[in-house]
Specification:
The structure holds 2 protein chains of 2 kinds. By secondary structure, chain A is α+β, with helices and mostly antiparallel strands. Chain A has helices at about 20-45, 105-110, 130-135, 140-160, 165, 170-190, 205-280, 280-300, 310-315; strands at about 50, 55-60, 65-70, 75, 80-90, 95, 100, 105, 110, 120-130, 195-205, 300-305. Among the domains of chain A are: about 10-85, no CATH class; about 95-205, Tetrahydropterin Synthase, Chain A (2-Layer Sandwich), CATH 3.30.479.30. In chain A, helix 4 packs across helix 6 and helix 7 crosses helix 8. By secondary structure, chain B is of the alpha+beta class. Among the domains of chain B are: about 10-60; about 65-170, Band 7 domain (Tetrahydropterin Synthase, Chain A, 2-Layer Sandwich). Chain B contains 8 helices and 10 strands. In chain B, the strands form 3 sheets. In chain B, strands 6, 7, 8 and 9 form a 4-stranded antiparallel β-sheet that branches. A 3-stranded antiparallel β-sheet of chain B has the order 3-2-5, covered by helices on one side. A two-stranded antiparallel sheet of chain B has the order 1-4. In chain B, helix 3 packs across helix 5. The longest helix of chain B has about 70 residues, at about 170-240. The chains are: A alpha+beta, B alpha+beta. At the A-B interface, strand 9, helix 3, helix 4, helix 7 and helix 8 of A face helix 1, strand 6, helix 4, strand 9 and helix 6 of B. Strand 12 of chain A pairs parallel with strand 10 (about 265-270) of chain B, so a sheet runs across the interface.
Chain lengths: ~325, ~290
């Protein structure tokens, strides 16, 4: 805080020839005072100007008490009696939990889950100063407080979640709940900040057990692989079977049609023949018979023709069962 | 002479003013004492006056303050050890009491930490480990804050906003056993995934085989029906046609059959007495 009465006190020093100095001063006293007053006034006017940039807000105190806020532009306060703090209320600020500048902070990152496992979590908190008065005057060290509260909130929420949820599906939930819980805490602390975003960067198993966690991931992939192989078997077999059954069906349909068509053909032939046969039964019958016999007998190579008189005696003793192929010329 | 006297008077007046006016900032509160005797407390900011030279102003924080006690080991109800790191938020509610009992912030922190630690010990020892980590944490911390708050307000003029566990961890030695348990659990889950994969795959294969068998059987079923239908229809057609002259049918069909049955490898023994050779011996008309 600036001293409101530091403007004078200059001429009261003592030197080796004080007497001469005092005499000199006495001669010009009025003029000196006038110059001093002028300097103070000019200084007062000159140092009272300040500027508030876009997105900023100035908080003015008069005699230490907050007396108003100023928006962007060139502004003025009376020096010595008024002070101003300019706070950026648009800027999104951030703090890191569990790491600092890409370096992991193990003690901060390691935490217990609800099922008494341990996870490593890293988080970014983004916030804005939305109430500059509170931010400036109600809470000491807002950044440190926010950092501690962020840890409290994150650990509180992870503590209510199982490790599997925290690492997979429950992430979003942990994130959202951490955000709202952190906001509640910071409101309780009169911090004047609004948490705009909480981002979980990493939620992973600690180094000591990471290999086991990776093995589970591999196991899950193996499971998928086995299922996919089986699906491949299915994809291979079922269309084949479908084709085969189509083939069976088609050939049965063909058989049915064939049978019907052949029957129609056969019967049509028979009926036409019958019609002509009826016109000359005796002749046709003989003709058909003789033609058929002729075809049969001309096709058969081994024929034995025996006279009817002889045959009556010899026929029973003919060696009919003897193999005859090839021996008789 | 007059100028010199007036200079001295002006200087004295300034000094008096300097000693009697003071500013209390937004961040501050103060008490005023007169030769060590308490006169008044100032809890709102602004320009204030006091008797010059005889009264003294003692300033202190009006803002919320924090104190982070060092992590300590506690024993839970289920006899597990826990390392907890409490953070306390507080502010000076009664400047006089604060000033007379703990004097300043570092004095206050030391006393507060003592109270918080003993309250934590008490609360933690009446809860199970899992509850403290999980769902019971909030009510537990509120109980600690409430009891600490009562004591701190009565004894030191300090208002407790809240007490939170920043960290609740296991002691180093216990962590190793937790890791071992986690590994065992992961192994179990991994095995489960693998056997589930086999189960699922076997199921899919079996389903596939079943589907194939049924599909072919269905095809066979309808195929046989069709074939039967074909047989039946053709039988009907044949019967209708042939029944017009069964004798002639038998005749023609027999002739056809002879042609088929008697091929070139057959051996035929014929008698001249048969109808075919009727004219072989005697050309005469019978």
């Amino acid at each position: 805080m600036r001293d409101p009465f530091s403007g004078n006190g200059g001429p009261l020093g003592s030197g080796p020839d004080v007497e001469a100095l005092i005499k000199k001063i006495r001669g010009h006293l009025g003029r000196i005072i006038a110059v001093l007053v002028l300097v103070v006034m000019v200084g007062t006017v000159a140092f009272g100007f300040y500027s508030v940039g876009p997105g900023e807000q100035g908080v003015v105190r008069t005699f230490g008490r907050e007396s108003g806020k100023t928006g962007p532009g060139l502004r003025y306060v009376v020096p010595l009696f008024q002070q101003v703090d300019v706070v950026n209320i648009e800027q999104v600020r951030r703090i890191e939990v569990g790491f600092r500048a890409k370096q992991r902070v193990q003690s901060e990152a390691l935490m217990l889950t609800g099922d008494e496992n341990m996870v490593e979590a890293q988080m970014i908190v983004q916030y804005r100063v939305t109430d500059p008065s509170k931010y400036l005057f109600r809470l000491k060290d807002p950044e440190d407080t926010l950092s501690a509260a962020a840890q409290v909130a994150l650990r509180g929420m992870v503590g209510r979640t199982t490790i599997d949820d925290a690492m997979t599906t429950g992430r979003e939930k942990v994130q959202a709940e951490t955000r709202s819980w952190l906001q509640v805490l910071m409101n309780n602390y009169q911090s004047g900040v609004t948490i705009t975003e909480v981002k979980l960067q990493v939620v992973d198993a600690p180094d000591e057990v990471r290999e086991s966690f990776h093995d589970v991931v591999r196991a899950r992939e193996e499971k998928e692989q086995k299922i996919n192989q089986a699906r491949g078997y299915q994809a291979d077999l079922i269309p084949g079977a479908r084709g085969e059954s189509q083939q069976i069906a088609r050939s049965a349909e063909a058989y049915r049609e064939q049978r019907v068509l052949r029957a129609n053909g056969d019967s049509a032939r028979f009926l036409s023949l019958l019609e002509e046969y009826r016109k000359a039964e005796r002749v046709t019958r003989d003709r058909l018979h003789l033609e058929a016999i002729e075809r049969v007998l001309s096709a058969v190579q081994k024929k034995t023709i025996i006279d009817a008189q002889v045959s009556r005696g010899t026929l029973p003793v003919l060696p009919l069962g003897e193999p005859q192929t090839g021996r008789t010329p | 002479m007059i100028a010199r006297a007036s200079l001295i008077v002006a200087a004295l007046a300034l000094l008096t003013l300097w000693s009697s006016a003071f500013i209390i900032d937004e961040r501050e509160q103060a008490i005023v004492t007169q030769f060590g005797e308490f006169k008044r407390a100032i809890t709102t900011p602004g320009l204030e006056w006091k008797l010059p030279f005889v009264q003294t102003v003692h300033r202190m924080e009006r803002r919320l303050l924090g104190s982070d006690a060092p992590p300590a080991e506690y024993l839970t109800l289920d006899k597990k050890r826990m390392v907890a790191d409490p953070v306390t938020r507080w502010r000076i509610a009664d400047p006089l009491k604060f000033f007379t009992t703990v004097h300043d912030q570092s004095g206050a922190r030391a006393r507060l930490d003592d109270i918080v630690l003993s309250e934590m010990r008490r609360e933690i020892s009446s809860h199970n480990f899992g509850d403290i980590v999980g769902n019971e944490r909030e009510p537990l911390m509120q109980a600690v804050a409430a009891r600490t708050g009562e004591k701190a307000l009565a004894e030191f003029g300090i208002e407790i906003i809240d007490v939170r566990i920043k960290r609740a961890d296991l002691p180093r030695e216990v962590q190793e056993s937790v890791f071992a348990r986690m590994r065992a659990e992961r192994d179990r889950i991994g095995k489960q995934y693998r056997s589930e994969g086999e189960e699922e795959a076997a199921k899919i294969r079996a389903d596939t085989d079943k589907e194939k068998t049924i599909m072919l059987a269905r095809a066979y079923e309808s195929a046989q029906k069709l074939r039967g239908e074909g047989d039946a229809l053709s039988t009907k057609i044949y019967a209708e046609a042939y029944s017009k002259d069964p004798e002639f049918y038998t005749f023609t069909r027999s002739l056809e059959a002879y042609e088929r049955v008697l091929t070139k490898d057959s051996t035929l023994v014929l008698s001249t007495g048969s109808e075919l050779f009727r004219y072989l011996g005697q050309p005469a008309k019978k």
